[in-house]
Write a structure and sequence with these properties.
DUF6644 domain-containing protein, mainly alpha, globular, transmembrane helix, single chain, 12 helices, membrane
């Protein structure tokens, strides 16, 4: 699903964006703006990870969530402003390519979900020391809906669906970092077993160049990986609250608040393909 599918009548306007300001100004310095876009994403990603890990109950646990938020908030704002401004400028210089891109649709959905989570969910929850207000609950539902739509486009679009493994890898690492004790050990053993099984299936049982056979195998493994990661996350999610206000919803917001930005970054990586 592309923006052309959604808004087919604006193609002439989109095509002309690269010929007028600011697109015509950005084109000769495209690489510079791309670097600024990536740097903004790094700043945003690092800040979002630290803030949302605190909501999950990991990371900077020696400080209350509100203090973590206060220290990270300027960096989060700078990152969001940076990716939006540089993204708009880059987009005007490359508008026709993005207009036809499934990956761009995913990135925009994840960007919208990320902004909703940052300012409507994770930020307010952290400010309230983990308490989840009615507004944060509405934001959580809205953000999850938009993000899951983006994931659906990611998973069902030809050429870019391998990018889902980027999101799965990030989710696997987050859960591994957050899990404790026996859960972490069992979870890690399961992950390693799945990785080994996928390697055998895609390198020994099926020829690496037999894409017709590899695609369903990789899709099956993606589903199994997702189920294993989700299962471990749910175990962690429903463990003892530890006195943290908000509890499960706050931790759910933390997980999702990280993965929405990972999805945006991963989709950007695949714009060149479709």
């Amino acid at each position: 699903m592309t923006f052309e599918d959604l808004f087919p009548h604006i193609r002439p306007w989109v095509v002309n964006l690269g010929n007028v300001a600011p697109g015509s100004f950005v084109k000769p310095q495209f690489a510079i703006w791309e670097i600024l876009h990536i740097l903004s994403l790094v700043v945003l990603g690092g800040s979002a990870i630290l803030l949302n890990l605190r909501l999950i109950g990991a990371g900077i646990t020696d400080e209350p969530p509100s203090e973590v938020r206060r220290n990270l908030w300027p960096w989060l704002n700078a990152g969001v402003i940076g990716i939006v401004v540089t993204g708009l400028l880059i987009g005007t210089a490359n508008a026709e390519r993005l207009y036809d891109s499934n990956a761009f649709t995913v990135k925009m959905a994840a960007l919208l979900a990320g902004i909703v989570f940052t300012y409507g969910v994770s930020g307010p929850i952290a400010k309230a020391e983990g308490a989840v207000s009615a507004g944060a609950k509405i934001g959580l539902v809205a953000g999850l809906t938009v993000w899951l739509f983006g994931l659906w486009v990611f998973a069902t679009s030809a050429l870019i669906n391998p990018g889902v493994f980027h999101v799965l890898t990030a989710a696997a690492l987050v859960v591994l970092f957050v899990a404790r004790g026996r859960l972490r050990f069992v979870y890690l053993i399961g992950l390693l077993a799945l990785i080994a099984a996928q390697f055998v299936a895609t390198h020994l049982l099926v020829r690496p160049d037999d894409y017709a056979a590899l695609t369903p195998v990789n899709k099956a493994f993606a589903a199994v990986f997702a189920a294993w990661i989700l299962g471990a996350a749910l175990v962690q999610l429903f463990r003892a609250e530890g006195g943290q206000p908000g509890g499960r919803l706050a931790r759910l917001a933390g997980y999702a608040g990280i993965l929405v930005w990972v999805t945006a970054a991963a989709a950007g990586r695949w714009i060149a393909f479709a």
